[in-house]
Structure formats: C-alpha cells, structure tokens
Amino acid sequence: MIKIDKITEAITSFLKERFEFMKGDLIEKISSIISKLISFIILFIILMLVIGFGSITLSNYFNELLNSSFLGYGIITLFYLSIFISILYLSRSGKLKKIIEKELKRGTRN
C-alpha cells in the first residue's frame, strides 16, 4: 500500500510540474503572438496613413499640372482601381493563392 501511495504521489507531482511547464510555455507563445499582432496593426495603420496622405499629395500635384480641380483625383482613383481589378483577377483565377503559398513556403525555409 505504501508503494502505491509513493507511486501515485510521484505521478501526481510529475504531472503538476509538467502542467506548470506547459502553462508557462503556452503563456510565452500567446504573448509573443499578441505582441506581433499589435506591432503589425500599428505598422498597418501607419502605412495606410502614408498611402492616404501620399495619394492626396500626388492628386493635388496632378491637379496643378493639369490645371484642374478634379483630374488628379481621378487619375489616382483609376490607379487604385486598376490595382484592385488586377488583384481581384489574380484572386479569382487562383494565381494569388499560389503566389502567397509559394512565398510562405519560401519564408519558412529561411
């Protein structure tokens, strides 16, 4: 009976230690993922602001060049529309998925 108690106690102790180790490792991984996500969101917002203000600046420049109050905005809008249509075409044809998968596989090898 004493041996069974010692074995049970040893197994319980081992399982508790293993659980605490896994819990610490899991918390570390989750915090790493959350910090990367927050960094990505901040960088994405800054990039959107840069693109937005850059587009307004370029539109105003084209307006000055063309002596118009709206053609510059139309040119920039057509530029973004052409990018959108290109990405939409690549997405619907399945090529975009292949390109992304290829880049992800290449990125994991490094």
Write out key terms for the chains shown.
single chain, 110 residues, mainly alpha, 3 helices
Model description:
The mean pLDDT is 89. α1 runs antiparallel to α2. The chain is elongated, with a radius of gyration of 28 Å. The protein is built from three helices and no strands. It starts with a helix and ends with a helix. 94% of the residues lie in helices and 0% in strands. The chain is an all-alpha fold and 110 residues long.
Rg, Å, rounded: 28 Å
Q: What can be said about the biggest beta sheet?
A: none
Summed over residues and divided by their number, the pLDDT gives a mean of 89
Low-confidence stretches at least 5 residues in length (pLDDT < 50)? none
Shape: elongated
Any chance you could write out the topology, listing elements then pairs?
Layout lengths: L1 H65 L4 H23 L1 H15 L1
Helix pairs in contact: 1-2
Summarize the structure.
94% of the residues lie in helices and 0% in strands.
